[in-house]
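Hi there,

I know you've been waiting on this one. I reran it after we fixed the sequence typo, so this is the corrected version. Both the input and the resulting structure follow.
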Amino acid sequence: MQNRGKWMLIAAMALYGTIGVFRHYIPLPSGLIACARGLIGALSLLLFLLIRRRKPDRTAIRRNLLPLCLSGAALGANWALLFEAYNRTTVASATLAYYFAPILLLIVAPFALKERLTARKVICIFIALVGMVFISGVAGGESSKLGGIAFALGAALLYPVIILLSKQLTEVSAFEKTIVQLLSAAAVTLPYTLLAEKWSFTEFTLTAATLLLIVCVVHTGVAYALYFSALRTMNAQTLAILSYIDPLVAVLLSALVLKEPFGWKELVGAVLILGAALISELPERKEHD
């Protein structure tokens, strides 16, 4: 059972890693993609629950409705910012900048969760900051990347918000939580999509519609179903390690499929950011009396 769960998690992480490439080929505004992903993804998960003959716990959802909706709103904004980052810089740079999110959670955890900030975590924060300098292009005087990096960091800033709000949820299963969050994400991004973004139905070519549907159903519904099904059999350390399949796949596809530039600075930044984030998530040895 554990091996099966491990392969399901690997599949989910690999799917997440390909989303940047799909976004690259969808000629639609970022808010519209985020809105569609929330709505169609939620419907996909509801269908999955119906197939398994499970009914959502409406009582638990009502008790946790506020944090569910707030975290869903943050999730929708998170997606829109990340998709716009993919649009403005390379998939590799946007993904790596977004993976600064675990480091941001480390920074706020002592204040929000009363967790101890150890020496190892402080070192990891510093190393990740150095890695961000390499990824952003600041060290080499490259300004063209900064817009996309800023959007990716904006998405990363929302990650701790989503985690902190999710920790307030009680009695709600992972599937039910995600369905409400996805619907909230769609509801929040819909007004922005209709009022602020410029698009028309003529942009929905067969290719664009097909790729968007894949992102909504496969990268959201299927990927989340695989991820939450795997959670039941995985320990925290395995989850932490396997989650880095996502950025590794994204970086490889950026270079191999999209032919986007990935030089030594990006490589150094990737090693520093992902290495620091991974090490910070691994359990520390307990001190003996």
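Quick highlight: Residues 2-281 form one domain.

Best,
R. S.
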